[in-house]
């Protein structure tokens, strides 16, 4: 089989796939490519790793070539020797080049424009966070037609701090990690928006948002639940909406997606090495950022974090720990279920439904 694809770079890419071999067990395929230049034809063997397609979010080969072509055109100093593709994100396709550079390509126009806000916030936080030994991405933006087409930054070493890794650590190390996480959140939630010139963040998490969110759950998820399970969710939403109508929630800058996947851990130093993926930064209730940690790590470690967390809005009539444990703690599973329905992923929906039912016992 021979497929000819055309790029649009100064070097006039002509990529001929002279053979195609995919390993089902490892998810690799190999492509032999030729690059036309003034000095002749250079043959390159690419080893490409593709993450399994999740709900229709796969990247076609032509898109991969377009991304690589654009990187090569914009950054001629970067010699691409190998790359990996992470297709798990909702908003961005991620290329890891030479195990050194992360490139994030937005999937939508809104996400592309949001890169500007991410960079403004991250640039501001760099000096604020230096004392914690936690690295944040240092964005560089690439523009096309006066809009950001992608961002790239130097890879931050570390592995996601999964619950299994955390639970194997001794109590003292867990306390140190809890201190790092809580210190980062305290710093983030205290940022004065007016100090960051030109940043524009959405404020979507009001009463109307959560009411509409509940209506979607009733329409799309309730049919798969028992009457008793539906009533538990109804009680949860009614209680929360009643509370926030009486006690308005504080609004701060929030990470918006702080789960174990975005907390990098240095196994050798036994400490957090970085925090990544700021694609969901927005204005919202600071308790929202704690809910992913509660869901991933459980109540015991959540309390460790809360013990170190210091913020003026910590003690309200509707306390932050109560907001997390009684409501926000389940928001991840609801969002995942609705997203699985949107992408028509039966597998993801069934897995999410199982987790939801377990949490309602």
TrEMBL record:
Pfam hit, one: APH
SUPFAM superfamilies reported for this sequence: Protein kinase-like (PK-like)
Location of the Aminoglycoside phosphotransferase domain: 87-304
Protein name: Aminoglycoside phosphotransferase family protein
Superkingdom: Bacteria
Organism: Bacillus caldolyticus
